[in-house]
Task: structure prediction
Amino acid sequence: MTDGSGKGKKRFWGRFALVSFALFVIFSVFSYINTAAHPGLRSGRPLPDIAGLTVAGDDLSLAEAARGRRMIMIVSPTCDICAGDMMTMVEAFESGSMEEFERPEEVLWMILSSDGMPRAVFMDAYRRGIQLGIGIVRVPSEAGRELSITRVPVMVSLNQGGTIASISYPRETSPR
Result:
């Protein structure tokens, strides 16, 4: 009697392993297809083709606006932390204490459009950033969803070829 139940258990676990493996393969294929269809921001890949508007009013893609830059800072005008980080960056460039980048032209601020009222600090940093030569491109807020951005600010480091080197969320935007 034990031989029959032992064979039954082996058969059950064998089928279970086969079904589990098949489900894993199916899930992996769908996951891969979804990633290819919606690349978002991913290390090692080029910047997605998102349409934006420069300060001068020119239509540019995100990749065109980021050409020759080393970092993209993605912000929202209604985010206090974003405005503070932008002002800190401006002040560091103005004082010559910016360690990461030699020139403001190496930085691009990608601003996600918002219906809310921009913070006063944001507008001050925005104006001073333009004067310094920091690149600025405005994109619709929907672009944040297309890029899989979960919160702002986001720092995107770029390789020399324009591909994404790394993505980081330097601060929490909501209290813990």
In short: Confidence is low (pLDDT under 50) at residues 34-38. Strands lie at 51-54, 59-61, 71-75, 107-112, 135-139, 154-158, 164-168. The longest helix spans residues 2-37.
